[in-house]
Amino acid sequence: MLEFIVFTFLLLTDYDGEAELINKDGNVVGKALLKETPHGVLIYVEATGLPPSSELAFHIHEKGLCEPPDFQTAGGHFNPEKKKHGFLNKDGYHAGDMPNFFTDKEGRARFHVLNTKVTMKEARPNSILGLSLMIHVHRDDYVTDPAGGAGHRIACGLIKRSEKKGKQ
Ligand SMILES: [Cu+2]
Ligand SMILES: [Zn+2]
Asked: Would you call 18 helix, strand, or coil by DSSP?
């Protein structure tokens, strides 16, 4: 995993937050960097040790408590607008809903996603500081309420202000 971290910082050298992703054994399997933009929060993720050649769900959950092995302590999807789950749901979607991503045959993944409903600024109803990022064992079907049929939780990370380059 460390081998890919080198790339990361080229794009997001000035990030506002970060999250260390741990698996059910409590081992670090990835990292996310978060950057406030005029349009939401840009999230960069890299992870390893995931199911190989898979499409997996990725969400923001409502509590910042990642207790292995099942991460139920993180609660449900972040949902300050009281919507239903999923981009394909006419009553959707949760602020914490984000697109699926793909792993390679070694179970690694790297991707960016822009979440336009949330912020890293404190004291806003849609602030994600102190919440958690979650990866699931299956893909999100983008419609089944409340969690997209994504199966159990396999990696979780607390979203915190970046110590190195945090602003505001
Ligand atoms: Cu989730
Ligand atoms: Zn959701």
From this structure: strand
Query: How many whole angstroms from 84 Cα to the centroid of ligand 2?
Result: 7
Residue 100 lies in a domain: yes
Measure 79 CA to ligand 1 centroid, in angstroms.
12
The closest ligand to the CA of 87 turns out to be 2
| Cα of 13 from ligand 1 centre, angstroms | 27
Render pLDDT for 96-145 as a digit per residue (tens, 0 to 9): 999 999 999 999 999 999 999 999 999 999 999 999 999 999 999 999 99
Domain that holds residue 53: 16-161
**For residue 53, what is the domain's CATH number?**
2.60.40.200
Question: Which tens digits make up the pLDDT trace of 50-70?
Answer: 999 999 999 999 999 999 999
Q: Would you say residue 5 lies in a domain? A: no
The domain total for the chain is 1
163, burial (CB in 10 Å: exposed 0-12, middle 13-18, buried 19+): exposed
State the catalytic residues: 59, 61, 77, 85, 94, 97, 136, 153
pTM of the full predicted structure? 0.91
As a whole number of angstroms, the distance between CA 35 and CA 68 comes to 27
